[in-house]
Every structure is written in C-alpha cells, then in structure tokens.
Write a structure and sequence with these properties.
seven-stranded mixed beta sheet, Aspartate Aminotransferase, domain 2, Aspartate Aminotransferase, domain 1, 411 residues, 2 domains
Length: 411
C-alpha cells in the first residue's frame, strides 16, 4: 500500500463532488470538529432562522401559527431527511426526542403483538434505548421481560414466537460497528417479530434503507449528522399501513385525524403523523429548518461514497501514523459494517481526548478506552482527517495527555 500523506489527502479532496456543500456551513478556524455524532455542523442559514423566529415572537405571536409553517414543520423536516434513511414522503416526522420516539414505537409494536412477552435488544445498545425497554417492562408488572444479545448472529438466532419486538441499534455507538438491517429484520419477520431500529449513528453518514430492509419502525436524533442543532428534534419512521387502526401510546392533539376540529374524543391520524403528540417545538424546529437549505442539494449516494473514502483514509492514517504509539482501530474494516464514527483505543484515551481539544481536534470518549472520531461527510475533508491524525500523533508521541490538567475526563 502506498504511504498516505497530506498531498494524498489534498488530491482526494480535489475530486470531491460534495465540496460546495461545505460552504453552506459555519466552521471555526483551525478547529477540526470530529464529534459530529454529538452536535453536527451549523448551517449558515440557522442564524437567519433564529433571528426570524425572534422577530416573529415579537411581531406575529399567535398569528405565527397561521402565517408561518410552525404546525407543518415536523412533516416538512421528515420529508427532507426521508431519502437519507430510505423512506418516502409522508413516512417520517421530526418531533420530540429519540427516547420518546423509542417509547412510542416499542409501545405500538407491543400493542400489535399483545400475546407475546419478550423484548429483544443488544447488551451494547445505547443506554437510553435500554432504559426505555426496562421502563416498559417494569410497568408491565412482570408480564414482559428483556432478552439481551451480544451479536448480530445471536439476534438472528434469538427470534422466536415469544419475542414481540426487537429494538436494536443500527450502529454500535462505541465501536461504530453496523448491523445488517435487512438480514436481522428478515429473521424477525420470519418469526412474526416487529423491529424498531435506532439509526442515530448512521442516518446522514452511511447507507440506511428502511423500506429496502422492510423495517417496521425507525427512530433517531436530528442533532448528529443531520445538523438539526443542539437539542434538535428527533424523528420517527413507521412502515405504511402498520397498525393504522391502533391508537398510539402517547395520544396528543397533533396526532389527531383532524387537528383543527378540537374534538373531545381522539381519533388517530393515519400513518406516521399519529405519532405526533402536543404543540410542536417551534424554536427547535426553526433552527432545524436550516437543513431544508442543505439536504435537498445532497445526493445520498455521493454522501455515502464520500464517507467511505474519508473513513477508509482515516483508518489507514491512524494505523500508519499512530499504530506504533499504541493506537488500535476498533471500527470494522469493511465499510458495509461501519457506522458514522471511527472508533479506536489508545493509552490514556480519556485524557487524550481532553488534550486533543486544546490541539484543535474535538472528538469524544466512551468508557473504557474508546476514542471516537465522528466523520460528517458534509464538511469533513481528507485533509482534515490527515491533520487530526497528525495532532493525535503529537499528543501521544510527546505524552502531552499525561499533563495534570487533562486528568479530568468528560465525554
């Protein structure tokens, strides 16, 4: 293999068809933000959206509900990101948080499989997803139980007539390993099991195809690769026609079949809109609406191809430049099994992440020893990957991370 270099990185960037998209974002000087899996880059349009909202608050007030798209925004945002998860128009809404949407989806699946008593999930699932399942099981007063698996193969083998719903993460948030959604869903459906996929660590970075995989539900947050901003709305997908006759577990007026009727008695909206609950989060939605100026300009296939090129390059650079310093890549070598982030271990991992911040590289740490470089293909370049590795190499080679000020570790 030819040795990697800054020149090689620049040559790859010169061929990037998505390079103009980078100009749509505000990016700090000399800071490489490799933590896109926590808060993605800010579209330039967001500042104007925020100011416009404040002006409307002063001037329009209640008229904003009729003169602005406050009520329609959950559906507009859902349609905007739908192509990134392989969904169609009217199949996704952005609302609430991932935790709430996970609860909605799992509860709805349980309503459709009332005779079954088991919830299936991963030991390594993101904690909030597991906590939701534990809460549902606890509220059932012993009727429901959880079954945990450690691998995709175990999940396939664990599907049986007792399992009501398999609630799984598409990507492991620590290692960045990606499961085969189609394979697992097919195994689930063969036993009558419904699936709920959390695609928080894949949507907007790597291929997701909920319709192609025949997934029943999918949920995820908007503030990672989708650039909805801090605390931005999450999203929920539901397969068309799945349980349209059944009420959602959280029935609210925005999920009513006729929002403007103000009827006393609830009647569920058909399709995914039934999973809307109360008044839209207008402020969060308005910031998130900046994505309407971004995602329609992006070809998902080009986005995913760029992510592959970036992460292949990053992994190779980590091994070449930092392998002798104790860095071990945890993420899969096969991009088809890789999520949005590249995970690797190193000596003093938590302190290394703290030292990297001062070196102008923002990443994240997960116990016990994982460093995650989130790779947003919208804004990250091969040159950024090379420079991030160069700064990491210096932090390790000069043992900068051992300085006392880096002993206190955050996430």
């Amino acid at each position: 293999m030819t040795a990697l270099s800054a020149a090689a990185a620049q040559a790859l960037d010169a061929l990037d068809p998505l390079a103009p998209i980078r100009e749509l974002f505000e990016l700090p000087d000399d800071v490489i933000f490799m933590d896109a899996n926590s808060v993605g880059p800010m579209p330039k349009a967001a500042r104007g959206k925020a100011k416009g909202l404040l002006d409307d608050w002063v001037n329009l007030r209640r008229r904003g509900w009729s003169q602005r798209q406050w009520l329609e925004m959950p559906s507009l945002l859902g349609d905007c990101i739908a192509p990134l998860i392989g969904a169609g128009p009217g199949e996704v809404v952005m609302c609430d948080s991932t935790t709430l949407n996970q609860f909605k989806a799992v509860s709805h699946a349980l309503t459709l499989r009332p005779e079954r008593r088991t919830l299936l999930t991963q030991n390594g699932n993101f904690p909030t997803d597991v906590h939701v399942l534990q809460g549902i099981a606890a509220a059932s007063e012993g009727r429901l139980s959880l079954r945990f698996v450690d691998s995709e193969d175990e999940a396939v083998a664990a599907m049986d007539a007792e399992v009501a719903v398999a609630a799984l993460s598409h990507v492991d948030y620590r290692s960045g390993g990606r499961w085969d959604m189609g394979r697992v869903t097919a195994a689930a459906h063969a036993k009558g099991v419904l699936t709920v996929w959390d695609v928080s660590h894949s949507a907007g970075a790597v291929p997701v195809d909920v319709r192609g995989a025949d997934a029943d539900f999918a949920v995820g947050c908007g503030y990672k690769y989708l650039c909805a901003g801090p605390g931005g709305p999450a999203f929920i997908y539901v397969k068309r026609g799945l349980g349209d006759e059944v009420w959602p577990a959280l029935a609210g007026w925005m999920g009513h079949a006729d929002v403007y009727a103000f009827a006393r008695d609830y009647a569920p909206h058909g399709g995914v809109k039934k999973f809307l609950t109360g008044t839209p989060l207008v402020g969060a939605d308005e910031l998130a609406s900046a994505m309407l100026d971004v995602w329609p300009k992006v070809d998902p296939a080009k986005l995913w191809a760029k992510h592959k090129s970036l992460t292949d390059f990053l992994i190779a650079a980590l091994k070449q430049e930092c392998g002798s310093l104790g860095v071990v890549v945890n993420s899969p070598g096969d991009h088809g099994r890789r999520g949005g982030n590249v995970s690797f271990s190193s000596p003093g991992a938590g302190s290394v992440v703290e030292a990297l911040i001062d070196a102008g590289v923002v990443s994240s740490f997960r116990q016990p020893d994982a460093i995650r470089f989130g790779v947003s293909p919208l804004v990250i370049r091969h040159a950024d990957c090379w420079e991030a590795v160069a700064r990491l190499k210096r932090v390790l080679a000069e043992t900068i991370w051992r300085q006392p000020k880096y002993a206190k570790v955050s996430v």
